[in-house]
Structures are given as structure tokens and as C-alpha cells.
Write a structure and sequence with these properties.
The protein is mainly alpha-helical. The chain has helices at 10-17, 42-66, 69-76, 80-86, 90-112, 119-136, 139-150, 152-175, 184-207, 213-226; strands spanning 21-23, 29-31. 71% of the residues lie in helices and 3% in strands.
Length: 230
């Protein structure tokens, strides 16, 4: 079996993504594992997470094409057969990793905005949490960027669902009178604009820089609150 396949086609990765299954031990949440391979024990879940962490390091360092299943299992310190216990292929683990990183970004932001005082405070807290996450997981940019070509459906889903979450927050803020009224198109434009700001600030100040996340988020939030007026 060739464990260092070339870059998967979108069709291969789409098929791999559709094979995710539910985790019995987590109340029916979607598992990153391939169809029929979801772990059924806490120990199995821990092993799967080790493989995903190793895949993040392998893909994040070497890129999809130069990465291999052997490289992933070596990093995870598990047998080759253990990899296939949970994943069908390199394409499958990459697609799972894209979903997993997207979910981890969401989960990092959620608790940070719970105590927000208004809609724009929500966005400041969300950006601060995102910058902190990126600083600790710089590989996320390479994984997501490469997914545009390796897993285009996953790439689109990542940004669409992120924008949808921001749009829901902005819409709720407008409904509370904290933001100006806006129709559906305006809300979507605002959401994608905010997401674009966050993505590129994450690149500059999370991946390339070490500036204080709160200070960066505060400057960005001042832009949202006041625009560019003198």
C-alpha cells in the first residue's frame, strides 16, 4: 500500500469527508473518523486525537503533497495499522483535520464572548480569542489555505459557517438596537468584512507577530465602532 499518496483530488477528499461518523461516547457528535471507524472508548478517542495532532504537525510543516501516513504515525507514535483503525486514507485525515480545526476555532471563541456587554464587545472578545488561538496553532493557516485546493468543499464550508456565526451575532446586535438596522445583504456583507479583518489580523499578529492580542483587537474594534472618520 502506498502510504505517501500524491495530493488527493477534490472528489477523493469529498468522499473522505462524507464518511465521518457519530461518536457513541459523546452523545452522537460527529466524529472525525472515517465511516464505521468512530472510537467507542475514551482510550480510542484519545488515540484518534493523537493522530489528528500528529497530522496537524505533519501537514502544517510539510504540506499535503509531501506528507505521508508514515510521517503521521511516526509523529503520533502509533502503528500504521492503528491509523487505518480510524482513517481510510491521507485524504480522509486531511479532510477531518480541516473540520476539526474549524470546530476548535469556534470552540475557542464561544466561551470568550459569554460575558460581552454589547454586540461590538462580542466582536472584540472574539477577535482576541482568535488571535490567542492562532498564536498557539499557527499551522491552522497552512491547513485551511491548502484545503482550497485539496479539500475545496471543506475550505468553503469553513468560511461559510464562520461568516454565518458572525452574521448571527451582528443580526442579534441589530435586533437589540446596539447596531444600525440592516437588511439580510447588509448583514452578510458586514459579517464577511469582519471575518476578513479577523483572518488577516490573525495572519499578521498571530502567525507573524507577537503583539498583544487585546491591544490588536481593541484597535480593530475602534475601527468597527468609529469607522475611519476624522
Amino acid at each position: 500500500m502506498d502510504t505517501k499518496a500524491t495530493a488527493g483530488s477534490p472528489k477523493q477528499v469529498r468522499k473522505a469527508r462524507n464518511r465521518s461518523t457519530l461518536r457513541p461516547e459523546t452523545g452522537g457528535q460527529l466524529s472525525p473518523a472515517s465511516d464505521g471507524k468512530a472510537p467507542r472508548t475514551a482510550r480510542g478517542e484519545k488515540t484518534l486525537r493523537k493522530i489528528l495532532a500528529a497530522a496537524l504537525a505533519e501537514f502544517g510543516t510539510r504540506g499535503f503533497s509531501d506528507s505521508s501516513i508514515v510521517g503521521i504515525t511516526t509523529r503520533a507514535r502509533v502503528a500504521l495499522g492503528t491509523f487505518y483503525t480510524y482513517f481510510d486514507s491521507k485524504d480522509a485525515v486531511f479532510a477531518a483535520l480541516v473540520r476539526d480545526m474549524s470546530a476548535r476555532v469556534r470552540d475557542a471563541v464561544g466561551p470568550a464572548i459569554a460575558e460581552a456587554t454589547d454586540a461590538l464587545d462580542v466582536e472584540e472578545r472574539a477577535l482576541t480569542a482568535y488571535l490567542r488561538f492562532v498564536a498557539d496553532h499557527k499551522e491552522v493557516y497552512r491547513i485551511i489555505d491548502e484545503s482550497e485546493f485539496v479539500d475545496p468543499e471543506g475550505f468553503r464550508t469553513h468560511y461559510m459557517t464562520t461568516a454565518d456565526r458572525i452574521a448571527a451575532r451582528l443580526s442579534a446586535g441589530a435586533a437589540r438596537g446596539e447596531l444600525s438596522d440592516a437588511d439580510a445583504l447588509a448583514i452578510e456583507v458586514r459579517a464577511w468584512a469582519v471575518m476578513g479583518i479577523n483572518v488577516f489580523l490573525g495572519l499578521r499578529f498571530g502567525v507573524w507577530g507577537r503583539e498583544n492580542p487585546e491591544a490588536v483587537a481593541a484597535h480593530a474594534n475602534a475601527l468597527l465602532r468609529n469607522g475611519l472618520k476624522a
